[in-house]
Design goal:
The protein is mostly helical. The protein is elongated. Helices cover 77% and strands 0% of the residues.
Length: 74
C-alpha cells in the first residue's frame, strides 16, 4: 500500500502548480524586501511570510484533504 507522501507525489500537475506558486511567492518576497524601510515595505514583508508559511503547510493539508491511504487503513 502506498504511503501518504507518494500519493501526493504521483499527482504531477499538482506538483507543477505548487512549484509555480512557490516561485511566485519567492518573487513577491524579493520585491517586498527590495522596497527598503517603510510602512508599506513592512506590511508587504509580513504578507510574504504569511504566504510562505501557508505554502509550506499546503502539502500537509492537501494530503489530509485527499485522504491518502496509510498503512493503518488496511
Amino acid at each position: 500500500m502506498k504511503m501518504r507522501s507518494t500519493c501526493l507525489a504521483d499527482d504531477k500537475p499538482w506538483l507543477l502548480r505548487y512549484a509555480l506558486a512557490f516561485a511566485a511567492i519567492l518573487g513577491f518576497g524579493g520585491f517586498a524586501f527590495s522596497l527598503g524601510d517603510g510602512v508599506a515595505a513592512f506590511r508587504l514583508q509580513a504578507v510574504f511570510f504569511v504566504l510562505l508559511f501557508s505554502a509550506i503547510l499546503l502539502p500537509l493539508l492537501e494530503i489530509w484533504w485527499r485522504d491518502c491511504p496509510t498503512r493503518l487503513h488496511r
